[in-house]
Specification:
By secondary structure, this protein is of the alpha+beta class. It has a domain of 85 residues: Nuclear Transport Factor 2, Chain: A (Roll). Helix content is 32%, strand content 28%. The chain has a four-stranded antiparallel sheet. The longest helix has 27 residues.
């Protein structure tokens, strides 16, 4: 009887944990940043580094703890009025995940996954394509 109760309680804890993790992931996956700790109002981009409470290296470590891969690009940016680090990570499946890390707390606020297209990057250029109009 004791084993049965342990199994029931363990299963309940597992289901609760998965539900909370799923809700948290659903909130951040593919969605934009809707909150943060450092508000951007009229500050110029040159002021962003002095406003950040965590370093770029700390933000990268937070991003890599959420998404396994290699860092492609990092940027301190204004995302919907909040100061965040935008960190692009190339994951094992060759998709690019844009991880938004709060520049004040280091919390991961959002993740957006793009499939790698493998084309359009010539001779070291990143993202610039000639249009044929």
């Amino acid at each position: 009887m004791k084993r049965k109760w342990i199994a029931i309680i363990g299963s309940g804890a597992l289901v609760t944990g998965l539900a909370l993790a799923g809700a948290s992931f659903a909130k951040s996956e593919g969605g934009g940043v809707s909150g943060g700790t450092i508000r951007i109002e009229k500050q110029a981009e040159v002021e962003f580094p002095s406003m950040a409470k965590i370093s770029m290296d700390q933000a990268v470590q937070k991003a890599l703890s959420s998404v396994q891969g290699q860092v492609l690009k990092t940027q301190l940016e204004d995302e919907n009025g909040f100061l965040v680090y935008g960190i692009e990570v190339v994951s094992a499946d060759k998709s690019i995940v844009d991880v938004k890390v709060d520049a004040g707390t280091g919390n991961v606020l959002a993740m957006d996954r793009d499939k790698a297209d493998g084309e359009g990057h010539e001779s070291g250029e990143h993202g610039d394509r000639d249009s044929e109009d």
